[in-house]
Amino acid sequence: MYANNLFWQLYILSHRNIVRYIRRPIEWTQYVGGYLISAVLIALIFSDIKSNREPQITLGLSFMLDVFSVFSLFGVPTRMLPTTTTTQHNTLTYNIPLPTVMSQRLLFNREREAGAYRTSAFYLADLLCRLPQHLIAVFFYSIIILYLADIHGTLNENGAFLLLVNTVVMQIYLGINETVGMYSCPPLTLISSIADWLILGACMSDADTAIVLAGLINVVNMIFR
Amino acid sequence: MHSGCFAQYPNLPKFLIWGYWSSPMSYATNSLLINQFEGTPGGDAYLHAYGVQLMDKWENLYFLLGMLVGVRVLTYLALLFLQREKR
After folding, report:
1. I need a labelling partner for A128 at 20 to 30 A (CA). Which of A212, A216, B18, B81 fits?
2. Gap from B6 CA to chain A (nearest CA, Å)
3. Of A123, A162, A218, which is closest to B1 when you measure between CB atoms?
4. Per the structure, how many domains does chain A have?
5. Domain spans of chain B?
């Protein structure tokens, strides 16, 4: 039995998360910053799409929208950030912020064992408090691309759908990131990474080798298929 | 690698089909392409040629939502059952 009901636990934990975000804004600003930088990059790459409306270009844009929305999760380059707030996961110059459920795992375990709150309250509070920053990031990401890449003409009535898809994709990869980190076991890493060449990242000991190998396989696939 | 951009679905080797169906990226790209081309002149033929229009855009989105729920449930189960400290 717990001293307080679920909603009170949720309120207290949400309040604690919000205070933490206010004290350490780098934890959420790098998500938003990464998305805005990605949006401008895509917009610059595909800025002439209206005059070159070939299907292949649109295919590339649709793919890049998703790819960049995933890579944006890695945040902005390490050198632009204080290293105390993030954990270096690979040999690249990017820092991947630890998901809250992982970074606060020890604290969570001890507080729960002490009977302070339910697991569901902790997880819900984490999801609810991070949702606004994700929605803000994806919203501006999609809006910048829609207007700078000049595809709003054809996506005018369906722009909301694009926003929705980007939001869901971002949440999926955040979820995969968390799940892989939580289980920390190779089989699950493989299962959750089968989506793309990330499977190589799961098999290799460092990201640089995985990226080189993925590029090679891609080239071979395109030449000999 | 096999989400439908570099190698389209009809051209994928059979042993890589599982990668296409298990990739969130392929569902997302498909739904965005259908969103972009469906109903436009020549758009449907293009979608068909690239093997995109196997499902409509909302069905693709439902698959994505299913994956989202799946990974969230897995994380919750990990929180619930793994690394619980023993007294």
Report:
1. B81
2. 7
3. A218
4. 2
5. 9-81
The pTM of this model reads 0.73
**pLDDT tens per residue across span A113-149:** 888 888 888 888 888 888 888 888 888 887 877 777 6
A49 pLDDT higher than 80: no
Are A164 and A62 in the same domain? Answer: yes
A165:B28 CB<8 A: yes
Domain that holds residue A216: 185-225
* Interchain contact, B67 vs A173, CB within 8 Å: no
Residues A168 and A204 in one domain: no
Indicate whether A200 and A124 sit together in one domain: no
φ, ψ for residue A188, nearest 5 deg: -70, -35
User: Which residues are within 8 A (CB) of A37 and not within 5 positions of it... i.e. 6 or more apart?
Assistant: A72, A76
Three-class DSSP category at A87? strand
Task: Clarify whether residues A171 and A189 are in a common domain.
Answer: no
DSSP per-residue letters across A10-66: HHHHHHHHHHHHHH-THHHHHHHHHHHHHHHHHHHHTTTTTTT--HHHHHHHHHHHH
Instruction: With respect to residue A122, please indicate whether it lies within any of the assigned structural domains.
Output: yes
